[in-house]
Specification:
Structural class: alpha+beta
CATH topology of one domain: Nuclear Transport Factor 2, Chain: A
Strand order of the largest sheet: 2-1-6-5-4-3
Helix content: 25-40%
Strand content: 25-35%
Mean pLDDT: 81
CATH class of one domain: Alpha Beta
Radius of gyration: 20 Å
Shape: globular
Distance between the termini: 38 Å
Low-confidence stretches: 1-31, 176-184
Largest sheet: 6 strands, mixed
Number of strands: 6
Length: 188
């Protein structure tokens, strides 16, 4: 998949750049940085900076409608229909590096990669994101196995009737800073 290759190329480029800076020394320089705190190590599997992991207000009606429609299509095994709820391009991360989805085949592939169907148990807003807690279900064509009945969480950004970003969240909130409060609006 092209997104997988581009994600791998990005990780490789970042590694080369990071290694190029290691051990370099300006000639004639005797100064050094003392007591500098180490920079936190980030993994390609970490959530992108700014993606919240808990709701700060209500989800928008549009987000709730689109997410529920996508879940319904996926739960019924109509993966091609479920795929059409994703924008082109869009971002997707499910215990992977962030993938850029920019073709119909990739939209279908990311939906096929989800072995379970799901129903939304809870939705709340966090800035432009909707934080969703899912109850996992069987779905035709999926291999959910022991996951049925379990829960999962996601941060989903909907705009213009499409899912633009989809990130798998840790099972419990607490890893990422909060996003700005969601804009006021009626909860549905």
């Amino acid at each position: 998949m092209a997104a997988g290759r581009s994600a791998a190329a990005s990780v490789a480029a970042a590694t080369v750049i990071a290694l190029a800076g290691c051990g370099s020394k300006q000639s004639g320089s005797t100064s050094r940085v003392q007591d500098a705190p180490p920079l936190p190590q980030r993994s390609a599997l970490d959530l992108p900076t700014g993606v919240p992991d808990r709701a700060t207000g209500p989800a928008t009606a549009e987000s709730r409608r689109i997410i529920n429609a996508w879940l319904r299509a996926l739960r019924h095994g109509t993966v091609t229909r479920a795929a059409r709820y994703f924008a082109l391009p869009s971002k997707f991360q499910n215990v992977t590096p962030v993938l850029t989805v920019d073709s119909e085949a990739e939209r279908i592939a990311i939906n096929l990669s989800l072995p379970c169907g799901a129903k939304a148990l809870a939705m709340g807003g966090a800035g432009p994101y909707t934080i969703v807690t899912f109850r996992l279900t069987k779905r035709p064509g999926g291999q959910c196995g022991g996951g049925v009945g379990g829960t999962a969480r996601g941060a989903i950004r909907v705009r213009g009737g499409k899912i633009e970003e989809w990130y798998r969240l840790p099972d419990r909130p607490g890893g990422q800073p909060l996003a700005p409060p969601a804009p006021p609006g009626p909860a549905t």
